[in-house]
Fold this sequence. Notes:
The structure is a homodimer of 312-residue chains.
Chain A: H1 11-19, H2 35-40, E1 47-49, E2 55-60, E3 63-69, H3 75-86, E4 94-98, E5 103-107, E6 133-134, E7 142-143, E8 153-157, E9 160-165, E10 170-173, E11 179-182, E12 196-199, E13 212-219, H4 221-225, E14 244-251, E15 263-266, H5 271-281, E16 304-306
Antiparallel strand pairs in A: 1-15, 2-3, 2-14, 3-13, 4-5, 4-14, 5-12, 6-10, 7-8, 8-9, 9-10, 11-12, 11-13, 15-16
Helix pairs in contact in A: 1-5
Amino acid sequence: MAASDYRLLTFAAILLILNGPLRGADLPKSKPATMAEILAASHPGDWRPLDPENTLYLDLVAGRVIIELAPAFAPSHVANVKALVREGYFDGLAVLRSQDNYVVQWGDPDAENPQAARKIRNAKKTLAAEFDRSIDPTLPFTRLPDGDVYAPEVGWSFDFPVARDPKSGKTWLVHSYGMVGAGRDNPADSGGGTELYVIIGHAPRHLDRNVTLLGRVVQGMERLSSMPRGAGAMGFYEKPEQRTPIKTVRVAADVPPSDRTELEVLRTDTATFQALVESRRNRGEEWFKHQAGRIELSNVPLPIRAKSPPNR
Amino acid sequence: MAASDYRLLTFAAILLILNGPLRGADLPKSKPATMAEILAASHPGDWRPLDPENTLYLDLVAGRVIIELAPAFAPSHVANVKALVREGYFDGLAVLRSQDNYVVQWGDPDAENPQAARKIRNAKKTLAAEFDRSIDPTLPFTRLPDGDVYAPEVGWSFDFPVARDPKSGKTWLVHSYGMVGAGRDNPADSGGGTELYVIIGHAPRHLDRNVTLLGRVVQGMERLSSMPRGAGAMGFYEKPEQRTPIKTVRVAADVPPSDRTELEVLRTDTATFQALVESRRNRGEEWFKHQAGRIELSNVPLPIRAKSPPNR
C-alpha cells in the first residue's frame, strides 16, 4: 500500500493502520500512538533529503546553522540570497540583533555607512516584496483541521507552514518559530535579503504578509535562539563586541560533500505526517491527563533527521 | 470619567476617546494609535503595583528575575512555593534544563538522591493539582474577541492570560511565553513547586490543564530564555558545571525596601488595555502594510513599568 493511498482516510483509520505493528503488550488499545512510535514506524519514502541547491550553511564559531530555502514562495528573494551568499556577502558580517520572544537578525553592521558598507557585486540590494503568492492547483497543501486565529486556512506546503485565503486566491508562508525572512525598512520593496531574521519566540503572525519569508532553520536553531539579548532598542546590540561574528554562509551545493550535513525532512504530504499531527492533538504519553484534541499550526513539529543511511 | 465607564464601549469608540489628545498634525486621522501612544496617554489608575507578598525575586549572578504569583488560580501551589522560598529551599540550587522553544526549569539537581537531596522543613513536597478552577462571578474576565484554537473563550483575569469553558464552568491559566508552572512526574498530584519551569518558546498550549501554572515572569525573562540549551534529553544539562546556580529566591515582602524592584502592571480591565489590544490587532506603525485585524492571546503584550513616581 503506497503512502498516497492513505491520504483520504480519517486520522482514526490511519492510526489503526500505522499502529498495527506497534501494539505490543505494553500499549493499552485505547492509547493514542506517540510521535516517537510514529516516526519509528515511518517508511524511507516518508522522508526527502534537503536539496543542496536550496540549503544554506550559516557557520558560526559555535557551529553550523542550516536553513532550508523556500523557492516556491519567494523565488526572487531565494535567488538573490543565494547570489549574495555566492559572492561572499555575508562572510565576516555579524548577528546584530537579538530581541527576546521575537527575532535574531544578521547582516552588515556598517550597512548605513556608504564608505564602510559591504559592497554588493552582482546580487541586488532590494527586490519587489514577495509577501504572498497565488494559490496554484499544483501547489501541495496539507490542511490542519483545527483552524487558526489569523487565516481562513492553515497547513503545510512543501513542508513549510503556510496559510491560505481561498477568497483572495492567495497563500503565504507564516511566521512560526524558526522561520527566516528578509528584513526591510518602511517601504514594502526595501528588503532583498542582505539582512535576514529568524523567529525565536511565540509566532508573531501579525508579520505575515508584511515581510518576505524565504526559508526556515532545520538544524542549529538553538545557536541563534540562545544568543544573549541586545540591550538596545529592538534588541540591537549596543557594542560591536557583543555581536556574534559570522564565519561564512554557503550554499550546501558549493560545499565539498565531506563537509556537508546530510539531513532529511519528514514529508508533510504523507500518512505518517498526518498520524504525527494526530499524535500531537491527542497525546499518548502517560504524563498527559487532559487531551487538547486540537493543535495550533506553530505547535506541530516538522521532524528532521540525519540522512539514512549516512553517506559518511 | 472612570476607567470602568469605558468597559461597554466598542474598541472604535474607545480609540476615539483615547486618541483625542494624541492627534497632532503628524498623525493622519485614519491611522490607528500605536501601543506607545496608548501607553503614553494612560492614567495612573490604569496601573497597579505588584503585591510584594505575591512577588518572587529569583536572583542569579546575571541579575534578577521577577515572578508575579497567581493565588487566584493556584492558591495551594502559591502558598507552598512561598513556604519553600521562606525556608531557603531554592537558595544555592540551579537551573537544570533549557529546552529550545519549550521550557527552562530549575530545582534541586540531587532531587532523586535521598542522601543529597535538599531537605524540606515545613513546606510540602507534593500537592493536589490545581489545573483549573471554577468560574466565579466575582472573578474578573476581559475577553479577547478573536477566538482561540484551544479553548472556547480566552482573555485575561487579574492580568494573567486565561481560558474559560462556560459549559464546564472551568477557567485556567494558559501556557503563554513567560508563564511559570510547577513541574511534576506522571501522577497528576506529584508536583508541588519544588521544581519550577518557565515557557521560553511558542505557547505550548497542549500543556494547559495538564500542569499547575502559578505565575509569570514580569521582568528579567531574557536571563532565563537566553540560557544555553542543554544537550541531554529534554534539554537537561549533561554536566553540573553547565547549570546556572541560583543565588537566592525571596518573597519581595521579605526583602528590605531598598533592595526591592518596584514595578507596576497595566490593568487588563481598563479601557487603556482594550485600546492596546486594538493597537495590536491593527498596527498604526508605518512599517505595517497589511493589518491582521485579529490577534492571538499569546501575542498581546502585558506591559510592565517601573513604579511611578519612583520611591528611591
